[in-house]
Amino acid sequence: MSRYGRDVPENTSATHPLALAPVTAPESSADAFVADFLHSLNFDRGVALSASSANDRYFALAHTVRDYLMARWLEDLRRQKQSQSKGVCYLSAEYLLGRQLDNNLLAGGLADIAEEALASCGISLDDLRQHEVEPGLGNGGLGRLAACFIDSLATLGVPSIGYGIRYEYGIFRQTFVEGQQVEQPDSWLSLGSPWEFARPEDAQTIAFGGRTETYDDEGVTRSRWVPGWNVQAVPYNYMVPGFQNGRVNTLRLWSAVATNAFDLRIFNSGDYEEAVRAQTFAENISKVLYPEDSTPQGKELRLQQQYFFVAASIHDFLDNMLAEGFDLSALPDRVIFQLNDTHPVIAVPEFMRVLVDEKKMEWDAAWAITRQCFAYTCHTLLPEALEVWPVDLLGRLLPRHLEIIYRINEEFLDAVRARYGDDEMRIRNMSIIAEHPVRSVRMAYLATVAGARVNGVAELHSQLLRDKVLGDFDDFFPEKFTNVTNGVTPRRFLRLANPELSGLITEAIGDGWLTDLERLRELEPFAEDSGFRAAFGEVKAANKRRLHEVLRARDGFEVSDGHLLDVMVKRLHEYKRQMLKVLHVVSTYEGVVSGRVPAAEVQPRTVIFGAKAAPGYTMAKRIIHLINAVGSVVNSDPRLDGRLTVIFPPNYDVTLAERVIPAADLSEQISLAGKEASGTGNMKFALNGALTIGTDDGANVEIRELVGDENFFLFGMSEPEVSESAARGYRPSEFYQEDAGLRAAIDLIASGAFSRGDRSVFEPIVSNLLYEDRFMVLADYASYIAAQERVDDAYADQEAWTRSAILNVARTGFFSSDRSIRDYIDRIWHTPPLA
Ligand code: 26W
């Protein structure tokens, strides 16, 4: 009797034909859609159409769409369980899902029926669209990649389940006060979410704290954990529909509640607060997403979050996805747990604990299984982004896991000694346990030792992992390291975000590209067709007009027509070098106000920024302040004659990305070479016909190789040049001395020109640039400015620009997340799609 899918249980006493019938979807007709919609409005929401709120109508619509996808979901759950074929458990602390309605309508092929059905009820689908709050359960690249990947897993029909955390508060809402970032809590669940299915009956008990003890088990000395306290992990299921392939996978997000939420005895003693302390304490675990996307704060609650969701996920898989009496030694043929960075790597000692302590398996047998059941994807190159947990903290929260990590490390270092002899330096460098500054567990090393495979997310990144970040491990485990270049889902970031371009493409080459994006290659000849170029240009212009509407309605921004739209949207981080973009704007401005450059010679340009800074990242917040300050001066200076505008809409998220990216002409991918692991925004812009100005960093390298040098504005040092210049000793102030344009720009910022004459406001930015400049903004400035001049010249020839833009679309089909998933299957998972 399986818990999933309502297949008829053998010993059922049901007689009613409907009870015995498989679940079926409502009929795909506007009438049936109306019936289901009104049923849900009247009976689930309990309101009449005439008295319904927009939220009622939105929920009823969502429920109707769910109903159309439900049969597939139940059938898929049943088949995945029954098939016992190898599946993927994707463990990620973040999923940046974006709005769900349109994607579910598209996947179900329901958009037209819904539009017609709702219209016949006097309701505009577009009104209800605006009503959806996007689940911001992620920070940036890593979280969005996870969302693209589960979409592709479902569309490729790979048996898989995404596991994560159902944060009550997602990534903060960004507001600007006097140009400065102010964070607001993201209460995305305040009106509830129609896309989730609570499954309290599948709750798991998650233990913490306490101690370990050894005991005699019929002559065998065993260890066990004696926890100090526990919480309940309640799962919420979300549909992950494949694109029009009848498949629906599951995203299972865990929410923390107290095991015994309410202590009546204490309550009756009058200490009401104490009575519910356990509840609040427990709930804190899944209360809020940590808003850092590169520097771990090492907070205990963060480790609690990581252990909470991976333990619940492992127990859930072992309890619910394996057939009765499943032989655990066959686990490697049944499941691969993909670790989305180091955040879920505590899953490795948890898996060992379950196999050894609970299933009483021999250590070596358990380790042999574990090493085949996990794989690790690294998403960063910044040493400070690699998580390390002090053994004191880890040992206090998870005492048994620390013991297991120590034993894994011991056996690993024995193998290292066996290979290299007593090379103490190497032993110290490779040990999972770092002795300095405090004795800590290096989670990336644990993931590398335990993982069957370790991959980077772009060719250059994976090479740098092998050569530099994990060099010793590449030497010891050469067969483990591989690469899977990132990708993005074309359903959301082309079909839904850019319906007009999608229509033009489908008209030209058919719609096969939606599930086979490399078919975009067939567009190449159309770049030579002036008619197609005109149509392509019209689509871009229409997307710009739509963006103008959105920005006017959303933030009151006025965007001038005919401007080159120059876009830089990504998290605010010094290595991504938003400061280089600011210096370009200030240089252009300074050139005009100094009288050196006639305003008429300035290519009309609107620079759009979008960026959240981690709340504790002071320099990043200062740069946000500077961008807004520069914007308000430049935008209001009549000497520029409106030819240069800076727009910084607050609260950049997936929904805004879907509006900005299709309208962009120029995509800013200007990180210091060797710092951006891959980037995925770069892929989305190229696929939507924007040209890239960028360094040879991350996936920019592969984009440039595919689109051709002539269709990419390359600038700046390469990674090897960066390393050489760092090794030589980088003195940023020399560039300030030598480059008059750079000096003028920096001096203008330092002068207080953008801070009402108060030089102190941006002084920290200026002095950091002149005396530290860790990410070599000044070194790449001249090359960047030269590249921007090439951009201005190129944009003057719209025919050539459009031709180049079409070739960018045609040649970037490789960057589909479907291709990434196929690479994971071939190189890491070996989980063929379920037939
Ligand atoms: C613990 C703090 C923390 C949180 C998140 C450290 C590191 C992260 C992420 C790994 C940061 C991240 O999002 N990395 C981005 O991952 C994308 C998907 O692979 C890449 O395209 C980006 O280049 C990379 O910066």
From TrEMBL:
Keywords: Carbohydrate metabolism, Glycogen metabolism, Glycosyltransferase, Phosphoprotein, Pyridoxal phosphate, Transferase. Its cofactor is pyridoxal 5'-phosphate. The modification N6-(pyridoxal phosphate)lysine is found at residue 684. InterPro entries: Glycg_phsphrylas, Glyco_trans_35, Pyridoxal_P_attach_site. The keyword Phosphoprotein applies. It catalyses: [(1->4)-alpha-D-glucosyl](n) + phosphate = [(1->4)-alpha-D-glucosyl](n-1) + alpha-D-glucose 1-phosphate. One of its GO terms (biological process) is glycogen catabolic process. Its EC number is 2.4.1.1. Belongs to the glycogen phosphorylase family. This is Alpha-1,4 glucan phosphorylase. The gene is malP.
